[in-house]
Amino acid sequence: MADFIVNSTRMAQPPHPFYPLEANIVGYLANEFSVLQLLGLFAAGCALILGFTLVLIRAHNPRLPSSEKATILWFVLSGTIHLFFEGYFAYNHASMPSMQDLFGQLWKEYAMSDSRYLTSDPFVLCMETVTAICWGPLSFAVAWFVTTQHPLRHPFQAMVSLGQIYGDILYYATSMFDLYHKSVTYCRPEAYYFWCYYFFMNFIWIVIPGILLYNSVAASAKAFKALDQQPERNVSNGHIKKTN
User: Which of 30, 116, 45 is closest to 84 using CA atoms?
Assistant: First the structure.
């Protein structure tokens, strides 16, 4: 009788398409939007953010080089995704399987490549929370520093970029550890979930931050080298004097 009750309870639970198939995903509801609708809305939102940002850049500092404008666009888009999209996950992680708003359905679509987002996985939750709280606001700060050519631009750009790379490496590493050490996979077997969602959409946050980190380190090294080549000076009564 007890076995019948247990089996009936298991059968009553709604099925889900995520891996591993035995994952306990409580309250799962299938998405109402199609994959094309979700991806289209996400792309349209990103395009709107980038377009509005570009208008503000041209109004505030139109003489910025194209590379600097691209850097600003990157940090604004990153800040928006970190703070609002990933922050949404951190806040709603416990009820994510049943969320039916746009962000909730986007996360459930992404979870096809990593079901940890639907099970309140401790690492994923902590990593996304730190990303939302720290790298989200700081990304907007870096965008402003680049726009105004503030001297803190490169220290903060290096810090945010390194944090993004570090988080991504740990994200990959923990998943691969479970796969090869525990034989647990969180991704569906279809190749595009792994290569498009899991690999490509995260690898972007290694490649671009890697380039920006290199640029900041090179700019800092160049600045210190130029400072070292300046004539030695003494400071007296608040005034800088050249030594004889």
Answer: 45
